[in-house]
Amino acid sequence: MDLTTSPEQDEIISSSAAFLRDRLPITRIRALFDESSNVDDAAWSGAAELGWFVLGLPEANGGVGFGLADEVHLFREIGRGLATGPFLSTVLAARVAAFGGHAALAEAIGGGQRVGIVIPGSSTLIGADGSLTGPLQLLDCEADGLALAVSPEQAVLVRVSDLTGVTPVACIDPGVRLCRADASGVAPIARVTADVDPVQRRGHVLAAAMLVGINEAVRDLSAEHAKSRVQFDKPIGVNQAIKHPCADMAVRAQLGYAQSIFAAVANDEGREDADYHAISAHLAAGEYADLSAAATVQIMGGMGFTFEHDAHLYCKRAFVLGQLFGGTSTQLGRLLDLPSAR
Amino acid sequence: MDLTTSPEQDEIISSSAAFLRDRLPITRIRALFDESSNVDDAAWSGAAELGWFVLGLPEANGGVGFGLADEVHLFREIGRGLATGPFLSTVLAARVAAFGGHAALAEAIGGGQRVGIVIPGSSTLIGADGSLTGPLQLLDCEADGLALAVSPEQAVLVRVSDLTGVTPVACIDPGVRLCRADASGVAPIARVTADVDPVQRRGHVLAAAMLVGINEAVRDLSAEHAKSRVQFDKPIGVNQAIKHPCADMAVRAQLGYAQSIFAAVANDEGREDADYHAISAHLAAGEYADLSAAATVQIMGGMGFTFEHDAHLYCKRAFVLGQLFGGTSTQLGRLLDLPSAR
Amino acid sequence: MDLAFSKEDNDFREEVRTWMTENAPRERRPRDLVAMREFDLAWQRKQYAAGWAGIGWPEQFGGRELPLTQQLIWYEEYARTSLPPIDARFVGLAHAGPTLMVRATPEHQAFHLPKILAGEVVWCQGFSEPEAGSDLASLKTKAIVDGDHLVVTGQKIWTSFGPVADYQELLVRTDFDVPKHKGITWVICDMKSPGIEARAIKTIEGGQEFAEVFYDEVRIPISNVVGGINNGWSVAMSTLSFERGTAFTVSQVQLSTSVERLIEMAKSRKSVNGRPVIEDEALAKKLARARADVAALRSLTYLNISRNARADQPGPEGSMLKLQDADLTKRVFKLALEVLGTRSLANPHEEDDSYWVDRHLLSYSSSIGGGTSEIQRNIIAERVLGLPR
Amino acid sequence: MDLAFSKEDNDFREEVRTWMTENAPRERRPRDLVAMREFDLAWQRKQYAAGWAGIGWPEQFGGRELPLTQQLIWYEEYARTSLPPIDARFVGLAHAGPTLMVRATPEHQAFHLPKILAGEVVWCQGFSEPEAGSDLASLKTKAIVDGDHLVVTGQKIWTSFGPVADYQELLVRTDFDVPKHKGITWVICDMKSPGIEARAIKTIEGGQEFAEVFYDEVRIPISNVVGGINNGWSVAMSTLSFERGTAFTVSQVQLSTSVERLIEMAKSRKSVNGRPVIEDEALAKKLARARADVAALRSLTYLNISRNARADQPGPEGSMLKLQDADLTKRVFKLALEVLGTRSLANPHEEDDSYWVDRHLLSYSSSIGGGTSEIQRNIIAERVLGLPR
Question: Under CATH, which number does the domain C248-384 receive?
Fold first, then answer.
């Protein structure tokens, strides 16, 4: 038992952090805000060249062959950097293609083809045959591209062009592109069941990793502000009303990180309680990031309430990530239905 | 519209506070802890002489003829003083007797006969005929005495001797006497329906008033400690980790008080949203007192964790009062089912 | 104790309600700042024409000088009719105007107060600075006396409606060599003066109502100083209790209305799993809890107004209302996102759902603006409970 | 990164589990303090006889010096087997003992450490005073040098098992004229010394494990001083990180077990309205949330132990575990009262339900004892995040 990072993971962390800082800084969200796409094509290709989209895919499937625990470190940086673009769904989609028997598609995705994700509406269903039906929303999908739909039992890829009424609407998160759409029995172009590859479980863990990155980012932002902002002739961090919320952020960041890597390793080691830990990771990291981001806006005072400051972007991204894979309420219900952890 | 206290109410407040301070100080809880009864007979008779048990009963029924808003001020002091004995159920029982057509019983209760209260267990029912059935607990009941059972629709008095398996058990609150018992179709000796007298509504409001008194008491205890306890060469109240919880207690105390008197006046004026405000008062004052009492234990530090200190007594009494009239969960459900307030 | 309003009050409520229903602006309030100014002023002129301007202002300054209970009724009906927010009219009606009433010369009063009431001008506030937030008295925007003018250089922030305002209540430092509260001056600044630049600040929900204001050797006549040079701190504090407990009435009624609307939405909408949202008992109980807490906030408003109607000077209970209003506002509009479920991802400005998302985002400011909740807690602990500073 | 334990570790777990199952005390732990002492020591002797005493102690002092991972395994199995709490054995094994190891003379070590391991003595702590809680260094119990003795007069509080202890790690003030941290001395006090009176303090759940201890000119040989006169503060601080991350393992496993038991109870019991408790979705979701939070706490324990196994000196992350453990303990046992419903009114000491009520009441101390949660937050903010003091 050892949950410290390996040298390879340290390398993933430093190289991905450097890439994001140079190529996809948070300022890109505002720069691309009025564009229809939130993706920086060059940066996306760069990420593909670094193997980001197939990092956790087995070598036999053309991947890098790393574990989910390694991907966690990449996605933690993606979360911390609020990188725009469908990173999470693209990585999961590569698996659906590969394990669904579409090697060429998997290769294309690994090489830079983007895949967005479906957020089910009320009564949206993925049928036993993988067909998609119901009202839905699309995150970061392109009109001529693909969308990933996931349930606990299976994951499918559908063509956005097979959906009807695809209408862009503003998203609460300025770094995310949203559409409304409908599906009536849309056949998937690729499909994989959870027993072959637990796509939703991996999605929970990677979403959790992004939320951990967000929590760590706002913790650092708050702590920095608490040290540098002077009021009443002292740094505001001397006040426990500032100091203690910062401490709570630090605790939450550690807890969320610990649970995310625990869940990832549980998956990689094939433990039977892997779903339990994955859902716990998403729920815990989600709540923790939410609380920390909201507390950060408060600590920043008026600045935290401006569009130019990053604080609100963390709140909004944390909110969007919390809606994935069923949303909090559904996830709580599923967690309670599972057998207890080992 | 005027929610300030009348001179009569100011008199109720000061005289009841003085009576409780002299005759039933909090130390009585520990003094009586090993006794089977928690009642101080002399003090109880004194309270009866002051008309406490029929304060809100119409003069036509032998009462003092004051309103529920006046009773609120008495019960706020009873709560603040953690007075032991079945004050709340006795006052409600006098109404059941009076409006149920048992004038002699009402007079006896007003004169000092005590009545405890039934806490329903799972599947306990008061039938359409007022008969009581099911497993239950008794608060502050005497073996040869009466017990009050209340539902939103009606209130009944039963003889404790008509119950089976009456077994004393230790109560979480050392100031309260608890028994377990069973009832199988026990016929009431008095009964009143809510349309004749809304006993449960009045119970909600008076329980709320007691919870307000508790909240005010712990607020004062905490503030006093924050001013006098010195650590690191300063009163601990200079620390926001102490100061801000104290401020929150002050806010909660005011909110709970405001809602309790609003609910009482709504009842006295026959507003159709009186139930709404009564349940809101019980829920709000209950949660506020709970939070404030728990925060007080924390502020007191180790002392707050001792049996000799009063802090835990407030926590425990607040908890018991929260269990009355269905308990929090049931009350929330009922509140949501009511039409909106005016 | 009574909750019943007098016949006079009830008649007043009827009158107010009728007038509001008949005169509520029919057009949507524009989002563009210039258009918003015009909309708000037009609405003020309409109220003025009907004799409703300055309901709490003394009659000597053209106000209605209504008793507190009727002010309460006015605000309750105002909120229930969903009338436009006070926004661009706020500083003039509720802060700068009342300050002028108690501290300015008759000439200033005669010149400015009627314009505010009549909806001719927009006032803004120039108090906060980037480095002077909670610690307002540490402000550094400097004013040098040059003949009969002050020459002002510096920067203000959080100036609502700054770019479209006519006048500003401006705090400047006129003496750097004395304790910070003692070198401040309160002055009327004409926002058209050369050397002023106001830049909108975009806020997290996309609004543009706040601004930064930059002053580059702006010349302001010394005759515009109110209360005397270096006496500005006491002038700025003189209006703190003008509202006398009615300040959060509109917000409180809106909270109440919002909770009821959310309950209706929860009954009529379905969640991801296809069942009515209200059947999610965890959510339903939060809605019920919100009902109880909003009821208590309203009761505290009534209690506070009852007390203030009998007292000369309102107590620090106003901080309690502000604190609880902020907390509940954040909680209720966060709850709204839960009721909306995944539909809260979308924030299209045309739909009803966006109202809730906007209000949620706006709610972040409720515990920051006008004195943070941390500062309110200090005030309550120190002034109500007597805890040490 | 891996969660899998080595074959060696797994074998160890098997061995531990088997031994614990076979040797778990069958009798109920008595509530009377004297009987409790005997019970706890007998249990320690049993572990000692089987070679399990001092699993984290260095071999040179008779301990097992197990690697951190195996200590983790030991505590996990210990909690899962519901073995008796460390209670009366705690100060000797986890505080005074480790202090003696790093700061005492070989003679003291040779005399005391074997007795602690073998379950012959109970140690208690004499640190806190009525006026010295969070501000421990302000302690005032004074010790005057008189020949080769210290003469101690004063009062200590929160001395667990004080009335039945053999020895005490005692902090006294030996110099009142220097800054408060510099005049403190750490000394071994024989609790049978004349002039000592220990009075039990009853706690809110009815327990009697804490005591006040009064010292009236108690003579203690100067040879009992550890680390030198006036050097006691550094001695007292030298064991702070002895546990290296395992301190909350038992509590964390108990929390996890408690949440699972509550879920089972919620499924099998009925609430006031006659339906299974678990169907109260609001409560069900709190239970689910508790599962997630307890899982995260366990993961942090594993992460912390992994890091400490590689580091010479544990970091301040221990404060994070303590803070979260306290918060979750309070939350989970409060939740237990919700699951019990009105049955939580009763607190008869013979029934299973009383376990939950007791634990709820005890949980109030989790954020107070051993350093309040407020102090932990200060430590985390200042030492982990570098915020100013």
Answer: 1.20.140.10
- A139 and A264: one domain? no
**A178-186 and A132-139: which strand pairing?**
antiparallel
- Give the end-to-end CA distance of chain C in Å, rounded to a whole number: 36
Q: Is A262 on the interface with D (CB under 8 A)?
A: yes
Q: Measure the CA dihedral C160/C163/C169/C173, to 10°.
A: 100
**By CA distance, what is B237's nearest residue in A?**
A240
Q: Which residue of C has its CA nearest to D279?
A: C281
Of D29, D23, D26, D80, which Cα lies nearest the Cα of D52?
D23
Give the domain D123-230 fold.
Butyryl-CoA Dehydrogenase, subunit A; domain 2 (2.40.110)
Instruction: Give tens-digit pLDDT for D294-352.
Output: 999 999 999 999 999 888 777 777 899 999 999 999 999 999 999 999 989 998 776 77
Q: Check residue C241 and give its pLDDT.
A: 62
**Of how many residues is chain D composed?**
389
Q: Which chains touch C (3 or more CB pairs under 8 A)?
A: A, B, D
Burial C28-43 (b: 16+ CB within 10 A, else e): eeeeebeebbebbbeb
**B1 located within any domain:** no
Instruction: Using alpha carbons, select from C127, C125, C131, C194 the residue that is nearest to residue C161.
Output: C125
The set of residues, in sequence order, having a beta carbon less than 8 Å from that of C194 and lying 6+ positions away, is C218, C219
Q: Which helix (H) or strand (E) holds D263?
A: helix D249-268
Distance CA B20, CA D172 (A): 44
Query: CA-to-CA distance for D360 and D375, rounded, in angstroms?
Result: 22
| C 158-187 residues with CB < 8 A to A | 158
Number of independent structural domains in chain B? 2
Strand duo C210-221 + C149-156: pairing: antiparallel
Give me the residue from A69, A227, A263 closest to D387, CB to CB. Answer: A227
Task: Note whether C260 contacts B: Cβ–Cβ < 8 A.
Answer: yes
In the predicted model, what is the mean pLDDT of chain A?
A: 97
Q: How many CB atoms lie within 10 A of CB D60?
A: 10
Task: Output the DSSP codes for B69-131.
Answer: HHHHHHHHHHHHTT--S-HHHHHHHHHHHHHTT-HHHHHHHHTT--EEEEEE-TT-EE-TTS-
Q: Do C306 and B4 touch (CB under 8 A)?
A: yes
Which sequence positions of C are flagged as catalytic? 243
D99 — phi, psi (to 5°)?
-65, -45
Domain range D7-85, its CATH number among 3.40.50.2000, 1.10.540.10, 1.25.10.10, 1.20.120.450 = 1.10.540.10
The amino acid at residue A144 is: D
Tokens of A72: 């966690």
Is B256 within 8 Å of chain C by CB?
yes
Query: Nearest 5°: phi and psi at A178?
Result: -125, 140
Q: Which residues in chain A are contacts of D374 at CB distance < 8 A?
A: 240, 244
Task: Tell me the backbone φ, ψ of residue D209, rounded to 5 degrees.
Answer: -80, -25
Task: Tell me what pLDDT residue C317 has.
Answer: 78
Q: Which of B158, B152, B148, B72 lies closest to B116, judged by CA?
A: B148
**Is D77 noted as a catalytic residue in this protein?**
no
**Phi, psi torsion values for C2, nearest 5 degrees:** -150, 150
The pTM of the full predicted model, rounded to 2 decimals, is: 0.97
Q: pLDDT (tens digit, 9 = 90+) per residue, B52-86?
A: 999 999 999 999 999 999 999 999 999 999 999 99
> Residue B75's domain spans which residues?
7-193
Each residue of C60-83: pLDDT tens digit?
A: 999 999 999 999 999 999 999 999
Q: Same structural domain for residues B87 and B143? A: yes
Residues A162 and A210 in one domain: no
Q: Cα separations (Å) of A94 from A142, A157, C89, C173?
A: 16, 10, 56, 63
- Do the interacting molecules here have an ipTM over 0.90? yes
Same domain flag for B27 and B89: yes
